[in-house]
């Protein structure tokens, strides 16, 4: 992709996000989501690999279906109430359809199957955009309509996401797929709290985006796509490997690190709302994802390859 086309795609991406985040009208929000989808498609398929084309087609079909559901829910609401304002979503059927549409856009369980496949077919930088920037407009729509949404449905989807994100990530050896399942389980934490404390869900999203960006950019700079490659990084870049370990443990939510803060606050808020069983369940399910984060951290820092690596040591100077 030449630099001019790249600039157009990135600008369209930010423009689509800005339109959705700043709009009060459902049609404008929908137009922003569509612009976002069309801007990311060339970035997914730019490697010209068959898996990348397959990923971009999957992404397009799922996002088109999700956008259709969102537009349909807003039309149903306008039919019932006579207005298109995002914050005035009062029709119960519209609320259910909107929740399904946004869950599909985000990759919340049970609409999560497309996300790991699409991430696996993308480059690490495109994967970073898919995991953070592309999730911001749907999360904003959830934030703006949070007072109207069905809490039982969202809590069910959240617990399912935390369970599936942890369970399906256990057996993976590809770092992109592991980060995709990590994203699904984190979305579960955001979905469970968004009705009760929308600002807390946004805090969780911002911290998740920050930590995921650190993980993706580190993996990109050491050019690591598999666990077996990750095992050789300590001999090449010890400082980056140590930073990656701290980032992964923070994503896991271990107490002294930043990632623990939103989980702690969410559990506290759920307890205040007399939802202690749900809080206990989602906290226990996060132990599943903790296992694969620990395995990633272990591979990045503690294991050494059993044979000499073919990589040039970073601190060796090239002799003329």
What is the topology?
Blueprint: H1 3-22, H2 26-44, H3 50-81, H4 92-106, H5 114-121, H6 124-131, H7 136-144, H8 151-169, H9 175-193, H10 198-221, H11 227-230, H12 233-236, H13 238-252, H14 260-272, H15 276-301
Summarize the structure.
By secondary structure, the protein is mostly helical. The chain is built from 15 helices and no strands. It has 2 domains: 1-126, no CATH class; 150-307.
Descriptive account of the structure:
The protein has 320 residues and is mostly helical. The chain has 2 domains: 1-126, no CATH class; 150-307. The chain has 15 helices and no strands. The protein has helices at residues 3-22, 26-44, 50-81, 92-106, 114-121, 124-131, 136-144, 151-169, 175-193, 198-221, 227-230, 233-236, 238-252, 260-272, 276-301. The radius of gyration is 20 Å and the shape is globular. The two termini are 34 Å apart. The mean pLDDT is 91. The chain crosses the membrane at residues 56-74, 86-106, 153-171, 178-197, 203-225, 237-255, 275-294. Residues 290-319 form the NADH dehydrogenase subunit 2 C-terminal domain.
Structural features:
single chain, mainly alpha, 15 helices, electron transport, NADH dehydrogenase (ubiquinone) activity
Give me the Rg, rounded.
20 Å
What is the domain tally? Answer: 2
Tell me the number of helical segments per DSSP (H or I, 4 or more residues long). Answer: 15
Rounded average pLDDT: 91
Q: What is the 3D shape?
A: globular
Helix content: over 70%
| Total count of strands | 0
Subcellular location: Mitochondrion inner membrane
Membrane topology: Multi-pass membrane protein
Organism: Ficedula hypoleuca
Domain NADH dehydrogenase subunit 2 C-terminal: 290-319
């Amino acid at each position: 992709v030449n630099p001019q086309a790249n600039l157009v795609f990135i600008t369209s991406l930010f423009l689509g996000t800005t339109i959705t985040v700043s709009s009060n009208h459902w049609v404008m929000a929908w137009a922003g989501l569509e612009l976002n989808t069309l801007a990311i498609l060339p970035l997914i398929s730019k490697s010209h690999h068959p898996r990348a084309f397959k990923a971009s087609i999957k992404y397009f079909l799922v996002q088109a279906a999700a956008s259709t559901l969102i537009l349909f829910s807003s039309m149903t609401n306008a039919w019932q109430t006579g207005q298109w304002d995002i914050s005035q979503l009062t029709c119960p059927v519209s609320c259910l359809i909107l929740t399904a549409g946004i869950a599909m856009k985000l990759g919340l369980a049970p609409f999560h199957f497309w996300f790991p496949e699409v991430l696996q077919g993308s480059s690490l930088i495109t994967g970073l955009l898919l995991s953070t920037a592309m999730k911001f407009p749907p999360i904003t729509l959830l934030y703006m309509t949070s007072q109207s949404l069905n809490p039982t449905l969202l809590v069910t989807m959240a617990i399912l996401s935390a369970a599936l994100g942890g369970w399906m990530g256990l057996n993976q050896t590809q770092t992109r797929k592991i980060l995709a399942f990590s994203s699904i389980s984190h979305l579960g934490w955001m979905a469970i709290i968004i009705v009760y404390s929308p600002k807390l869900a946004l805090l969780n999203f911002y911290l998740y985006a920050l930590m995921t960006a650190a993980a993706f950019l580190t993996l990109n700079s050491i050019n690591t796509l598999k666990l077996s490659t990750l095992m050789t990084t300590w001999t090449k870049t010890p400082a980056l490997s140590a930073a990656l370990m701290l980032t992964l443990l923070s994503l896991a939510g271990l107490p002294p690190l930043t990632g623990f803060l939103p989980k702690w606050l969410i559990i506290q808020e759920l307890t205040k709302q007399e939802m202690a069983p749900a809080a206990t369940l989602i906290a226990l399910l996060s132990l599943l994802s903790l296992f694969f984060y620990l395995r990633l951290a272990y591979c990045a820092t503690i294991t050494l390859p059993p044979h000499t690596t073919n990589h040039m040591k970073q601190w060796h100077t090239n002799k003329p």
